[in-house]
Amino acid sequence: MAVKIKTQFGVIDISNEVISTVVGGAATEIFGIVGMASKNQIRDNLNDILNKENYSRGVIVRQEDDGVIVDVYIIVSYGTKISEVSRNVQEKVKYDLETMLDISAKAVNVYVQGVRVLKD
After folding, report:
1. What distance in Å separates the CA atoms of residue 88 and residue 95, rounded to the nearest whole number?
2. CA distance 27 to 24
3. What are phi and psi of 55, to 5 degrees?
4. Of 41, 62, 70, 72, which is least surrounded by CB within 10 A?
5. In terms of C-beta density within 10 A (0-12 exposed, 13-18 middle, 19 or more buried), how is residue 77 classed?
6. What is the DSSP string of 65-93?
7. In the prediction, which pLDDT does 38 show?
8. Would the pLDDT of 35 be above 90?
9. CA–CA distance, 110 with 93 (Å, rounded to integer)
10. 119 or 7, which is more confident
11. What local confidence, expressed as pLDDT, does residue 88 receive?
């Protein structure tokens, strides 16, 4: 499915893949985020951090009449306050969707899939 935006010049279709890439990029910019995790770790056989090309595996986008609902699967850094990092992800994802794609996020659900110790 895609989000359709009607303008005076025609219709713009934004695919879920594009939305997932924007959401993944926004989430990984937040301090305390190690990276994105796969939403189906057992099926995908991925226990690793996803690359930029695979952000869609860590994001679920569902369309509603009054906006989109986004589920984000992340891995956080050890020693950070998980609730604060999750709140920052929600705010950044919502802001980026509204400014970059002109899409309103009805809800941004954050699922912490793991905690990693960063090696220096």
Report:
1. 11
2. 5
3. -60, -30
4. 62
5. middle
6. TTEEEEEEEEEEETTS-HHHHHHHHHHHH
7. 78
8. no
9. 10
10. 7
11. 96
Measured distance CA(87)–CA(95) in Å, rounded: 12
Give the tens place of pLDDT for each residue, 51-100. 656 777 789 999 888 889 999 999 999 999 999 999 999 999 999 999 99
Helix axes 16-28, 82-96, angle to 10 degrees: 140
User: Which residue bears the tokens 């010049």?
Assistant: 9
Give the pair of three-digit tokens for residue 110.
């954050």
**What's the confidence (pLDDT) of residue 64?**
84
Cα dihedral 76, 82, 87, 90, rounded to 10, equals: 30
Sign of the alpha-carbon dihedral angle for 99, 34, 41, 73: negative
